[in-house]
Amino acid sequence: MAKLINVKKSTRQGIRRRWMTNSIGIVLFIVLFAVTAFSVAVGSYYYATMSNGLRTKAEYVVDFFSDYTTQSEYYQHVLAYVNSNFEGKDEVEMQFLGSNGTIRFSTFGLAAYSAPGTPDIAGALNQDIPQTTPWTGKDPSTGEHIMAVCAPLTVDGRPVAAIRYVTSLRLVDRQLVIIVSLSALVGLVILALVYFSNLYFVKSIVEPVAGITEITKRIAAGSYGIQIEKQHDDEIGDLTDALNDMSMKIDQAERMQSEFISSVSHELRTPLTAINGWAETIMNGEVRDAEDVRKGMGIIVSEARRLTNMVEELLEFSRIEDGRFTLSMEQVDLKAELEDAVYTYKEFFRKDGLELHYEDTEEEFPTMEADPERLRQVFCNLMDNAAKHGGSGKRIDAAIRMDGEWAVITIRDYGPGIPVDELSHVKTKFYKGSSKARGSGIGLAVCDEIVTRHGGELTIGNASGGGCIVTIRLPVEISQRTGT
User: Fold this and answer.
1) Does the pLDDT at position 1 exceed 50?
2) CA–CA separation, 60 vs 37, rounded Å?
3) Do residues 460 and 447 touch, judged by C-beta distance below 8 A?
4) What's the rounded Cα separation, in Å, for the pair 210 and 11?
5) Higher pLDDT, 208 or 160
6) Is 25's pLDDT higher than 70?
């Protein structure tokens, strides 16, 4: 019985390290890219929204003062506006700047008469192309991160003053830090999930492969028949099944080969003993009666013929194994070849008390492309097997007929038949099953090879009413049958 091996779990750091490095490296890059892109997008959205809001406020004020045409009118009415309670006064600082960029009025009052000198002021007071200009950076006086939008107040198309809205980005930056931190945390969680899932996945592959490797080493060392425990019903499981099947087949082949060597040794020893015994007896002159001498010589000839047949079978098997088995094809009368084999064995079987019946047919058989020597070898081997294994039935039937495009030949005995559980193995090389009859166990394997190489098929089964029946089907071309 095959042994089931529960493989001790082992690891292979090489595969695991390469797998984890490649997969985690790619995922880490994707996560970093995603977190960075998300952070930049959120920051840009927040800053753009605030900048648009400040621009809208600044341009609204500019439109509000558009009816004034002198700098003094601007100063008078802007001062009144700065001191009023306009919307958002507590959240955003509004500054009124003169044409030289100095802050004249401020809602917070702390920046009055200072000159920030930031790019947004320069853009708004540009004498050639004055325009509303946003800017984000550090306040020159406090170092605080701020956002400012400066819009020009013009007279006759030239800037005479500017309205500037300023807001601190401290709260916004804090919110962005929180968002970026949360996105980074999510990225780390994703990375951790990918890492552990990959770790489990690699483990589910590496450990079975390591176990399979260990078992294959044991099989290579000669421990045939051992089985690997199947852990997963996937590709690794399919590999396990294939290796288990290979191990079992190697074990069976080894056992069959051992049985074959033992069987052949016994088969060779028996006729050689008879030959040596009778040869020594005759040579020493111990047998003087002519009839006994003739009988002894007959035994020597018979056993020598049996040895020759066994050697021929072994040679045929050797040719099949190393690829030297060939066919010499020519036009053959299949029916005539079968009849020659029947007539050859008919008298031989009669001497052993066996009746060989041949069922002739009136149907005309065309010649076909085949190897006559090989086909005759098949017919003789099968009839010899029928006599050897089914001779107790005292009768053997042979027949040939056409079945469509196939020539069908049957050889049947009336012996005990073949056990059902052995039918699928009888054509396997070296297999003898429960049969006690003499033989090497390769005759049927050689016959099957010959028939297969002719494009046919050889099947063996138990006949209705008892005995074994062998059926050979060989293809016959329609053009040959019709003569066209």
Assistant:
1) no
2) 34
3) no
4) 7
5) 160
6) yes
